[in-house]
Amino acid sequence: MNQKKPEAAQPETSTNSQRQDIRTHTPIIISGGGSVKILFEPSDYPPNSSNPAEKTHTHRNSSVARVDIIDDINGTKFPCPEIPHNGRCTVTIHCQRNGRPESNITVSGATDLKLSFEHGEYRPAAQAGVGSHFARERQITEIEIKDDNPGGRRQTFPAPSGGVCTIKIFDRH
């Protein structure tokens, strides 16, 4: 497993912004500090009704387009440029509680984007119009991006500022 620190944020240039045709919905947002919160638009990511036991929310005809990691202490944005062009990858947000690994949050898929997390651990929070789930006393420890194409590689990024960060996952459809 390659472990690499997020590199310093690069300013958006016309080359960077033209690199991918990103027509997104509201991004999936995972933020950490003393707890971990998951925010998503429920109309974009409805529960998987075919198997509700999976704890999966699916957006049809969509794939991962971009992942941003933001240090919430100093505001630095770390773009992750290693997303495969076809979006076929799995983004895993590793979390811990009291120093022990806890339920991870995953976003994956190339044709149907799937957001998965343990609903018993990440409880719903009341917030108008937005799917919001949170788990108290959790910390984000690292962000893993795995290229799911044949021969793809796995990258890990330590969570900045001891997990006081925000991860935004943008889709392409």
Question: Explain this structure to me?
Answer:
The protein is mainly beta. 3% of the residues lie in helices and 47% in strands. The strands form two sheets. Strands 1, 4, 7, 8, 9, 10, 13 and 14 form an eight-stranded mixed beta sheet that branches. It has a seven-stranded antiparallel beta sheet with strand order 6-5-15-2-3-12-11, with no helix packed on it. Strand 7 (89-97) and strand 8 form a beta hairpin. The protein starts with a strand and ends with a strand. The model is unreliable at 1-20 (pLDDT under 50).
Number of strands: 15
**Backbone structural class:** mainly beta
What fraction of the residues are assigned to beta strands by DSSP? over 45%
Distance between the termini: 30 Å
Q: How many helices in DSSP terms?
A: 1
Average pLDDT? 81
Describe, in short, the structure shown.
This protein is 3% helix and 47% strand.
Question: Can you give keywords for this protein?
Answer:
15 strands; 173 residues; mainly beta; disordered N terminus; globular; 3% helix
Please specify the SSE layout and strand pairing:
Layout: E1 2-3, H1 14-18, E2 28-32, E3 35-40, E4 56-60, E5 63-71, E6 77-80, E7 89-97, E8 100-101, E9 105-108, E10 112-116, E11 123-124, E12 131-136, E13 139-147, E14 154-158, E15 165-172
Parallel strand pairs: 1-14
Antiparallel strand pairs: 2-3, 2-15, 3-12, 4-10, 5-6, 5-15, 7-8, 7-9, 7-13, 9-10, 11-12, 13-14
